[in-house]
Design a protein that fits this description.
GO biological process, one term: methylation
Number of helices: 5
Keywords: Membrane, Methyltransferase, S-adenosyl-L-methionine, Transferase, Transmembrane, Transmembrane helix
CATH topology of the largest domain: Rossmann fold
Transmembrane segments: 6-31
Order of helices and strands: HHEHEHEEHEEE
InterPro entries: FAM173A/B, SAM-dependent_MTases_sf
GO molecular function, one term: protein-lysine N-methyltransferase activity
Radius of gyration: 18 Å
CATH class of the largest domain: Alpha Beta
Structural class: alpha/beta
Bound molecules: S-adenosylmethionine
Number of strands: 7
Distance between the termini: 67 Å
């Protein structure tokens, strides 16, 4: 019986350490211009469907937070050519790296400023950012991504630019709220 007691204590202790560590990592991100706010599971599923991923695609989540979107995509689409997350927060990058160690699939996490990365090799992009950062990063993406690339932004849209990309809005009920998802396809 004593062993059961110690297992429960060890489990409780591990869960508390994990919860405090996670809260600390999330708290730190509020010093960033764009804080870490994870997207709801249902919204991730819908946004990823809008990306129409298929074998050989190169996927990136810009501002990947704790890496949940990258892990979800790599689990659902194991035949992608690459599956990458980029975040400028050291703590979230470290968390994503450690979480993916136990995950067992090939995913790639980079700690870098999204504005300094080179996007020419990706063709499917996931965004969940503030409107201000979105407008700026879309300009960079539209310059660098190959033709036909698809970008899906959750909840925040951008100005249409008919010369450079098509813009489509899809709506979905996410936990009782009607939310918009914006799909950009580069010409
Ligand atoms: C709203 S969270 C999105 C998290 C994740 N994509 C999700 O959907 O659950 C935005 C993320 O962008 C990151 N971020 C903010 N500015 C950035 C920058 N300049 N370069 C890279 N990442 C950035 C933040 O650290 C944060 O984790």
């Amino acid at each position: 019986m004593e062993i059961v007691y110690w297992i429960i204590v060890a489990l409780g202790y591990s869960i508390s350490v994990y919860a405090i560590g996670y809260a600390f990592v999330v708290g730190l991100s509020f010093f960033n211009d764009v804080p870490y706010v994870p997207l709801e599971r249902k919204a991730i599923k819908f946004a990823v469907e809008c990306l129409e991923l298929s074998k050989g695609d190169r996927f990136i989540d810009i501002g990947s937070g704790d890496g949940r979107v990258v892990r979800y995509v790599s689990g659902k689409y194991p035949r992608l050519k690459s599956c990458t997350g980029i975040d400028n927060s050291r703590a979230l990058w470290l968390y994503s790296k450690v979480a993916s160690l136990f995950y067992g699939r090939r995913v790639n996490f980079l700690r870098e400023d999204a504005f300094k990365h080179e996007y020419g090799k990706y063709n499917k992009v996931f965004l969940y950012l503030t409107p201000n950062m979105m407008d700026k990063i879309i300009k960079v993406l539209i310059e660098q991504l190959p033709k036909g690339s698809r970008i899906v932004s959750s909840y925040f849209g951008t100005k249409p630019d008919r010369k450079k990309y098509s813009l489509q809005e899809k709506k979905s009920n996410i936990n009782g709220k009607i939310r918009s998802f914006y799909i950009l396809t580069k010409y």
